[in-house]
Amino acid sequence: MSETTERRASQTRADPRWAAVVARDSHADGQFVYAVSSTGVYCRPSCGARTAKAQNVSFYPLPEHAEQAGYRPCKRCKPEQPALAERHALLIAELCRHIDRAVTAPSLAELAQQANLSRYHLQRLFKALTGVSPKAYATARRAAKLREQLGQADSVTEAIYAAGYQASSRFYAQADAVLGMPAKRYRAGGGDGQIRVAVGQCSLGAILVAASERGVCAILMGDSPDELLNDLQRRFMHAELIAGDQDFEQLVATVVGFVEAPQLGMNLPLDIRGTLFQQRVWQALREIPVGSTVSYSGLAQRLGAPKSARAVAQACAANALAVAIPCHRVVRSDGGLSGYRWGIERKRVLLEREAQSHGVRAIDARFI
Questions:
Q1: Burial readout 153-175 (b: 16 or more C-beta within 10 A, e: otherwise)
Q2: Alpha-carbon torsion, ordered 146, 151, 157, 162, to 10 deg
Q3: pLDDT at residue 172 above 50?
Q4: Are 259 and 342 in contact (CB under 8 A)?
Q5: Minimum mean pLDDT among 24-28, 98-102, 209-213, 320-324: which range?
Q6: Mean pLDDT over residues 244-263, rounded?
Q7: Which pLDDT score, from 0 to 100, does residue 190 have?
């Protein structure tokens, strides 16, 4: 190898972009392209072609710069086109718009045909990018349309059909899950009805328990009872808050007992309110065994949406049912404790108690 060739090879290897090319790093796609003088072709960093010799490689910030230098685009990785991840995002966004416009929810087969993908591949791709399946997305959008129509239509029946339900009987079978209340009540102004509430004390400070006619809808922890009551009022602005009676105090005692001794267990009816994705996250949280932990990214993977770790963290932060929906069991990837709505120290204590009740170390217990 000549001195000039060796110098060019050394310069290429010293460039940080070379490491991305060698690793075929898809995260570098869109940041630059590289051209190979021996072939006259330029590629994106993630191209699966055999790695070129370093002395033959040049880097360009944009595809047009490589073309101006006389290179042609690689037929394998198509660097002149948007990156695969970007193309997938655009495709799923278009399918979401199609679902939104459709009078009736399109089937998975119809969507797959439109996307020119197999049903399996589309289902997996849609879920990875949105966090939910096409069917679940369509159900959520139809529910949103229904809530909008109930405020505009002349009757409940008209709103049901305008929202895309094929028959009123199918809607009424799902009404409580869709609206959280009967349709006529929602149309009349909704509201959260009556919510019974009581505030007690536990070793972690003040604890508030609230319940609707459907079940426990809030378990909040903090330093001040007034702070917890204000939080509850913000969450249920249209509810009539009433003090819990003596029987309700027993429910509070059950919650406090679980906080103090997790091995006792807690089996209470819950009124869980949140978006479709939040409810999926919260259900996954309830499946984490006592004494175990999982990372945010690990939980996202279990949901089939590995890129949604941040959305998982946001769903954990939105949880209003402390300990009943155990968001304290989610930790950082390195096992460290990250943000907790009711304070890091409370999270630490809860994990330590659960670990001790099962004879394991709290931070080391993992649920994969």
A1: beebeebbbbbbbeeeeebeeeb
A2: -50
A3: no
A4: no
A5: 98-102
A6: 82
A7: 44
Is residue 255 within 8 Å of 350, Cβ to Cβ? no
Token pair 């849609």 is at which residue? 126
The angle that helices 134-150 and 276-286 make with each other, rounded to 10 degrees, is 130
What are the tens digits of pLDDT across the range 60-97?
999 999 999 999 999 999 998 877 777 788 888 888 88
Q: Which two tokens stand for residue 38?
A: 């021996």
- On the question of pLDDT at 181 being above 70, the answer is no
Determine the Cα–Cα distance for residues 299 and 314; give it in Å rounded to an integer: 13
Cα–Cα distance measured from residue 320 to residue 212, given in angstroms and rounded to the nearest whole number: 13
What does the block give as tokens for 81?
A: 């086109």
Read off the tokens for 198: 């009581």
Q: What are phi and psi of 29, to 5 degrees?
A: -60, 135
Share of the chain above pLDDT 90, in %: 29
Q: Which amino acid is at 65?
A: H
DSSP characters for 135-172?
Answer: HHHHHHHHHHHHHHHHTTSSSHHHHHHHTT-S-HHHHH
Helix (H, G, I), strand (E, B) or coil at 209: strand
Is residue 192 within 8 A of residue 212, CB to CB? The reply is: yes
DSSP character string of 189-207: T----EEEEEEEEETTEEE
Active-site residue list: 43, 327
Please answer whether residues 285 and 316 qualify as being in contact, where contact means their C-beta atoms are separated by less than 8 angstroms: yes
